[in-house]
Specification:
alpha/beta, Rossmann fold, six-stranded parallel β-sheet
């Protein structure tokens, strides 16, 4: 079975949001058009408690996008975003949600960030996504959403590591920065992730 993983298409990552991905809204019609081609559609949702330690606001004197050490892990300090229950954490209004069979929330542990839909950044906590996909007899995973160089990248990487044939849909995602995007794409190629367009699905 093939599954589409829709990663973090949430208001805070769209234009006008607190951590807007440039042109992030452009992924929505692409993802909406893709959904009917899949047996299973699953979404991830960034779902941080207030005061999460990945937020710059939790570190007096630090600014957004500075890099720090967080319990032994390199951490980009982000603007406050996707706080549990906030409008910014909600899925984009234009995203088609009727076909989404399950939602896996991530980033809930206050002391560790979670880019991947499968694990937190320290791989200490699993979301349950691997077990769910296996229970549903999924063998192929297709990944799109936001942002290309962070949550989509890490989700695709972990899908491959977990043994799924993984496809990264390049025009169903947008990136925060060109350098981190190029590094992500190179890394995914090296581990055997297929880079495709929505038209090739």
């Amino acid at each position: 079975m093939k599954a589409l993983l829709v990663v973090d298409v949430q208001n805070d990552f769209l234009p006008g949001g607190s951590l807007a991905v440039p042109h992030g809204d452009e992924v929505i019609p692409v993802i909406n058009a893709l959904q009917s081609r899949f047996d299973l559609v699953v979404a991830t949702q960034d779902w941080h408690p207030g005061g999460h330690l990945s937020f710059a606001s939790a570190h007096p004197g630090k600014n957004p996008f500075e890099i720090t050490d967080l319990y032994g892990l390199e951490q980009v300090l982000w603007p406050d975003h996707c706080v549990q229950g906030s409008e910014g954490a909600e899925f984009a209004a234009a995203l088609e949600k009727n076909r989404i069979a399950a939602i896996f929330r991530k980033g809930m542990h206050p002391e560790v960030d979670s880019y991947s839909g499968f694990f937190d950044n320290g791989r200490r906590y699993a979301t349950g996504l691997t077990s769910y996909l296996r229970e549903m007899n999924v063998t192929e995973v297709y990944v799109g959403g936001l942002a290309a160089d962070y949550c989509v990248y890490y989700t695709a990487k972990d899908a491959a590591i977990e043994g799924f044939e993984t496809h990264y849909i390049t025009n169903a995602t947008r990136h925060i920065a060109s350098d981190s995007y190029e590094k992500a794409i190179s890394d995914l190629r090296e581990i055997g992730v297929h880079l495709i367009t929505a038209e090739e699905v």
